[in-house]
Amino acid sequence: MKYRTLALLNTRTLSIPISTDQITSLQSLITYLKEHSPFYREILTNIHPENIRNATDLAGLPLTTKEDLQKQGQDFLCVPRTDIIEYTSTSGTLGSPVTVPLTEKDLQRLAENEYGSFVCADGKPADVYQLMLTLDRQFMAGMAYYSGIRKLGAGLIRLGPGVPSLQWETIGRLQPTAIVAVPSFIVKLIQYAEEHHIDIHSSSVRKAICIGENIRNPDFTLNIIGRKIKEAWNIDLYSTYASTEMQTAFTECGQGRGGHLQENLLIAEILDDQNQPVGPRTPGELTITTLRVEGMPLLRYKTGDICMFFDEPCACGRHSIRLSPILGRKAQMIKFKGTTLYPPALFDLLNEMEEVKDYVVEVYSNEWGLDEVLLHILPKEATEECHGKIKAYLQARLRVSPHVRYVEAPELHKMQFPEASRKIIKFIDKRK
Ligand SMILES: [Zn+2]
């Protein structure tokens, strides 16, 4: 008996807990996949849903990778083509884009997911959200926010990305209470307001849902971008993280202590390099199993995103686990002269430097096949003094200096916004 308790405790502390409702949903998912998915039918031949009863059984199921999706996308589809309503797509930051088709039921699930997200981020029917992002180009998130806010019964202003002048003019005219935007764009909005004498403190905006970039450090304190926003504009910030493949978001509550898992929509695992579950507060790869997805459900899909989970109850009253900010993409890990780092850590460093107006980080392989880092930097001033300051700062913070190339605004803009890109490019991977 003593033994048994110990084993139970071990499972609880070693991996993300899985509820009985999730197990039931997982069993139905396996039955569904074996029936409808050509890809999973093959790899689940010897798996019987009734034998999956806990986290350990889950850990014994086969994994799915991004490569599987890129190579055999069609084989993941569980419904006839005529049932597909929306064809969404990943941005293709890493390799070829993946198409994720959604049925009517999937679109409803997506709306329910974002409804849950916005409620978690203190959203109310009386709120009015200004969406500073695209709803086009097969971008799932834009559509998800839109349908989630509709379900919440709040107001919507679909303004699209960029153009600070138009954003401010609309804020003045339609008085939104909240904005949904990329954090670095919020910094640009603030800069624009300062340059054009717009009093941001008297604006109607009270909160921002921050998408696409981190606003916090792994210990949940605000990172440089988060601080820049908060110091200039006292609005509430909520971070949200999602991906097209998982069709589900992790969103922060008012406590700002990580994105809450929506247990009825997703099973989450954090795995180490040997695909074994890691405990709380330990970095690993987020691996997800979608629940209640009809068109293209995924079983134990390795997202490539590195993060940690936290299982102590949140002060907001929710008991679901929370995810740390994404530390980086696994494939983007840089082995740099004896240290390993992820691009977001370099972004933080560059964001902090007053002398750096903007940048693109490039990584490439040198003649020995090792990673080299090249920073394309738009300096505040094109002077020797400014360049010297940047160099000294990088040396102090990184111990080894990356290559630096100073560029002018038009060239950098071209690098950041290549044709057909849906979002701003801050990282270029030229490694072989
Ligand atoms: Zn909470």
Describe the structure.
By secondary structure, the protein is α/β, with parallel strands linked by helices. The chain folds into 2 domains: 85-328, ANL, N-terminal domain (Rossmann fold), CATH 3.40.50.12780; 333-430, 2-Layer Sandwich (GMP Synthetase, Chain A, domain 3), CATH 3.30.300.30. It contains 13 helices and 21 strands. It has helices spanning 2-14, 20-36, 38-43, 55-59, 66-72, 104-120, 140-152, 164-174, 183-195, 224-232, 343-352, 384-398, 409-416, and strands at 84-89, 99-103, 128-131, 155-158, 178-181, 207-210, 236-243, 248-251, 259-260, 266-271, 284-290, 301-307, 309-310, 322-323, 328-329, 334-336, 339-341, 356-365, 371-379, 403-406, 427-430. The strands form 6 sheets. It has a 6-stranded mixed β-sheet with strand order 4-3-5-6-7-8, sandwiched between helices. Strands 10-11-12-15 form a 4-stranded antiparallel β-sheet. A hairpin with a 5-residue loop joins strand 18 and strand 19 (371-379). The radius of gyration is 22 Å and the shape is globular. The model is unreliable at 1-12 (pLDDT under 50). Zinc ion is lined by residues 253, 255, 260, 314, 316, 318.
